[in-house]
Amino acid sequence: MGFLDLFVVAVMPVLKVLLVTGVGLFLATDRINLLGPEARNYLNKIVFYLFGPSLVVSNLAETVTLDSLVTMWFMPVNIFLTFIIGSALGWILIKITKTPEHLRGMVIGCCSAGNLGNLLLIIVPAVCTESNTPFGDSCSTYAEAYASLSMAVGAIFIWSYAYPFVYAYASKSMEQNSSEEAPQLFPDSCTEALLPSSDCSNSEDYSGQGVLPLTNSDGRIKIPVVKNTVERIKIIMGKIDLKRVFAPSAIAAVVGFIIGTISPIRKVLIGDNAPLHVVDTSVSLIGEAAIPCMTLIMGANLLKGLKGSEVSMLVIIGIVAVRNIFLPLLGIGVVRAARHFGMVGSDSLYQFVLMLQYALPPAMSVGTMTQLFQSGQGESSMIMLWTYAVASISLTLWSTLFMWLLS
Predict the structure, then answer these.
(1) CB count, 10 Å around CB of 362?
(2) What pLDDT does 272 receive?
(3) Radius of gyration of the chain (CA)
(4) Which backbone phi and psi does 335 adopt, to 5 degrees?
(5) How far apart, in Å, are the Cα atoms of 93 and each of 69, 170, 257?
(6) N or C: which end of the chain has fewer CB within 10 A?
(7) TM segments (predicted)?
(8) Cβ-Cβ contacts under 8 Å for 79 (sequence gap 6 or more)
(9) What is the C-alpha separation between 357 and 115, in angstroms, rounded?
(10) Nearest 5°: phi and psi at 130?
(11) What span, in angstroms and rounded, lies between the C-alpha atoms of 320 and 324?
(12) Nearest Cα to 290, choosing from 45, 95, 19?
């Protein structure tokens, strides 16, 4: 199949995303105000607790079997690698651009966490519906299963991996701001901070001031590297929000796996002749509302970015480069290597989804985190606006290249 034909297959799903996202953005404007902050909040909760989990459990229950688990085991590993590589590139970016303290966690989050939910749920099945798709007739059978598993696993990693970074830097920035605003404990005339002084009225109450920490020859405090590393890991692990890690979509994925892989339960619920087939069809009907609702919310959330922010253009360019250039290139190498060592089967659609996970724009959940901590909200909206605008072009080109490499 020619490169131009593959480009047409790749561009149609992206156009669908752009159209629905544009509708969400339009509905969120002040003049229309159908998707204002309050409406988005309620709709987001419905998607989070009902539509999304229903979509995940129905898709996985209908398509996942014990045999397919052998094929899909590498996907969680691949998603974890996207987070590891992305966070490493994000750390390099904040060092190069000297990103402000309160934005560093958000930058790492944007570089590490991709939109593994609604974008794949739209793009992958839409590619299969094209008449000249390179993935064959079985494409539509597994497309939603791959995308649903990606959504569930991605939700776990976003709130267990990216969330602690955003929280750590945001809380550190808030602590620094509060310390700067705190009143001075000692009078300005007390300049000898480490030694008792007759000029300080209460110096006898601070007899411990004469004890200095261990220092090296340069006068800097010595902190064992191993101990410091362990303490940092403990702090980060302590910030993991287990309630968000085990989100409804993640729990739905477990339920879907149980239904799909345990034969007696599957026979009762799945199939036209199943006694409780109506339960499965009802859940599937509810889940069909998830994709349009999530995309509308995504478009509405981009509205803040149009109002501008003080984030450095260099930081935005860096995040765009990480998510649209470096990660996709590295993703090709990772999937190719996994295929070479037998960790990925011969299913070209599965390999396409694995590569596509490296080429997605940042997860909208990162913007949600900034709202939780009231830190960097305008900056995150601006970053999301630019990254999604660029992704509308880069995602089409990368999808075309991925299909060309696999066809």
Answers:
(1) 28
(2) 86
(3) 25
(4) -70, -40
(5) 37, 18, 38
(6) N
(7) 6-30, 42-61, 73-94, 106-127, 147-170, 245-265, 315-337, 349-373, 385-406
(8) 116, 150, 153, 154, 157, 357
(9) 8
(10) -70, 140
(11) 6
(12) 45
- Token pair for 218: 């340069």
CA 36 to CA 74: how far, in whole Å? 40
Q: Which two tokens stand for residue 194?
A: 């480490």
CB 382 within 8 A of CB 305: yes
Residue 240 pLDDT = 59
**Cα separation of 387 and 324, whole Å?**
8
**DSSP per-residue string spanning 149-182:** HHHHHHHHHIIIIIHHHHHHHHHHHHHHHHHHHS
37 φ, ψ (degrees, to nearest 5): -55, -45
- Choose among 352, 285, 256, 223: nearest CA to 62: 256
- Spans of the chain, pLDDT less than 70: 1, 173-245, 308-309
CATH code: domain 3-177+244-406 is 1.20.1530
Per the CB < 8 A criterion, the answer to whether 5 and 17 are in contact is no
What predicted TM-score, i.e. pTM, was given to this entire model? 0.78
Residue 56 has which token pair? 């995940």
Are the beta carbons of 399 and 127 closer than 8 angstroms? yes
> What are the C-alpha distances in Å from 150 to residues 250, 299, 323, 357?
10, 21, 17, 8
φ/ψ (deg, to 5) at 358: -90, -15
SS3 270: coil
Q: What is the pLDDT of residue 195?
A: 39
**pLDDT given for residue 182 in this prediction:** 46
> What is residue 259's predicted lDDT score, i.e. its pLDDT?
92
Q: Taking a C-beta distance cutoff of 8 angstroms, is the pair 366, 162 a contact?
A: yes
Q: Which residues of 216-251 are buried (b: 16+ CB within 10 A; e: fewer)?
A: eeeeeeeeeeeeeeeeeeeeeeeeeeeebbebbbbe
Helix axes 118-129, 348-356, angle to 10 degrees: 140
Quote the CA–CA distance of 272 and 260 in Å, as a whole number: 15
Compute the distance between CA of residue 207 and CA of residue 219 in angstroms, rounded to an integer: 22
Contact at 8 Å (CB) between 150 and 79? yes
